[in-house]
Amino acid sequence: MSSPAPSSSLPVDASTVQVAVAGEALIDLIRNPDGTYLPCLGGALYNLCRALARQGVGTQYLNPLSRDRFGRELAAQLQGDGVHLAQPEPVQQVTSLAVVNLDAQGHPDYAFYRDGVADRAVSAQGLTAACSASPALQLVCTGALALDARDAAVYVPWLQAQRAAGHCVVVDANLRPSVMPDLAAYRAQVHAALAEADIIKASDEDLEHLQVSGADALARARHLLAANPRAVLMALTLGGEGAWLLHKNGGQWFAKEAQPLAVVDTVGAGDSFLAGLLAHLLQRSRAEGMAGVGFAAWLNGLSADACQAALRHALASASLCVMERGCVPPSWQAAQARAAQYPALAR
After folding, report:
1. Contact at 8 Å (CB) between 237 and 243?
2. Among 316, 234, 306, which residue's Cα sits nearest to residue 275?
3. How many domains does the chain contain in total?
4. With bands split at pLDDT 50, 70 and 90, how would you rate the model's confidence at 9?
5. Range of the domain at 293
6. Is residue 5 pLDDT above 60, yes or no?
């Protein structure tokens, strides 16, 4: 495995954390054309941490990491990217593994090995305590494998505590239905988490797996946003067909790359998209001062220009990622430059 990539991000401590992220950190074993497997650092929430930090956001990873070699590599990369570790001391449990096979279009198919692993050695109380130690915290994020019904006692109670503390809740559905033993329980758990969210991200495939009603993906996204009255924003990703950003006030914005991309693979694309979206919104909120209100309340008054700009930045962030092998999230400057140089199509 390669050594951690250098990053321009500055290390942060708990006092400067703006976003706390909880969820899986694992090793993606990506199948090469010759049948061998390349170990890559991954996990949706792990990728989100790295992507946020690389875009200049003070970010904290809440879950523990293993003392095994893979865990040490995961920790080193997070710290190299400037992510603060809420639990810097490693634990005895082993690191989660995901075996990843890519199809001809570079889309990944996963098989997970997650029993008795380090990133699941958490409790709602422990996550809440770590967040309480971050006075500048504004957003908390989770999703993907953290929404496994077997961890129901951890993440939804934690999200409820964060909402009560005045923090903005972000949930990325990012379903993995093929690896869940009880799909109905998994679906119910995802919906329970989404009910706590101020910002929701989901793909068109996620909405199908969640059995959200609607004639097409956009209609399903509108339905999901309306069905979760606490939610203010809904990001809908459509892979190579672009993305939508919906506001509860009825506004909706679309962006798609004007020209086809040289896609290497799509690992980490959605995570980079969400990081770009959140980083842009945070930057905008700082510029506007938020008028003394919390971030979640500030979202209610977002302008159309702010929404379109954030969406374009998110799309540029994802596009830069898919042109690299594995998850290589871009910097804020790189995403800004791409969004300016290659204007996205809109509707």
Report:
1. yes
2. 316
3. 1
4. very low
5. 15-341
6. no
